[in-house]
Specification:
By secondary structure, the chain is mostly helical. Helices cover 73% and strands 0% of the residues. Helix 4 crosses helix 6 and helix 5 packs across helix 8. The model has no long low-confidence stretch (mean pLDDT 91).
């Protein structure tokens, strides 16, 4: 069964909804579909036709960031230096977490509203595990560190950078905190 193409005005409304939602998130305001409709000057039904829940809208806003991280991770798999590939992926991930509020909210959610989000999260998890395993197999990761350790450690770095740095300095702070963390995770982090 095929779906009919969206009308141009419907496609435009969807793009406008996503853009306004991005702005609301960047302000630090919680997404509420009624608020999005009010800001756009459209009926709330218009917003609900495109996004049945605030979670679906949030995941749509986050999708480009998740896609970019997945693409970066997949590209990192071709790097011959396994430790550099892992640290580069972790650096990109933590930077995205502290600069795009939608990513933190989506990755912390207990369930996904959209199948695409589930797919992207699974891809990121698989790529992260592969990068970790390659670095571990190369002897670059301490033997007592597991792939399961990375998620809480990365969350800690992102949280600390978000809490302790001004918005403009969060990415550089997160990179500095990550470098300190990696000193304890990698066997020989000096050359990284």
């Amino acid at each position: 069964m095929t779906t009919a193409p969206r009308r141009k005005d419907a496609a435009r409304n969807r793009e406008r909804i996503v853009a306004v939602a991005r702005g609301v998130l960047d302000e630090g305001t919680q997404l509420q579909l009624n608020d999005i409709a009010r800001r756009l000057g459209v009926g709330v039904g218009t917003v609900y036709r495109h996004f049945p829940t605030a979670e679906a809208l949030l995941e749509t806003v986050a999708a480009p960031g998740l896609e970019a991280l997945a693409a970066h991770g997949e590209a990192a798999l071709s790097d011959e230096d396994a430790a550099r590939a892992l640290t580069g992926f972790l650096a990109r991930t933590v930077e995205a977490q502290v600069t795009d509020i939608s990513l933190s909210a989506v990755t912390a959610a207990p369930a996904d509203a959209l199948p695409r989000t589930t797919e992207l999260r699974q891809t990121l998890s698989a790529v992260g595990r592969q990068l970790f395993q390659r670095a571990s197999d190369a002897g670059a990761v301490r033997a007592d560190v597991t792939p399961e350790d990375l998620v809480p450690l990365m969350c800690g770095v992102a949280y600390a950078a978000t809490v302790h740095a001004a918005p403009a300095a969060r990415a550089s702070t997160a990179r500095r905190y990550l470098a300190a963390l990696l000193e304890g995770v990698l066997v020989d982090p000096v050359a990284r």
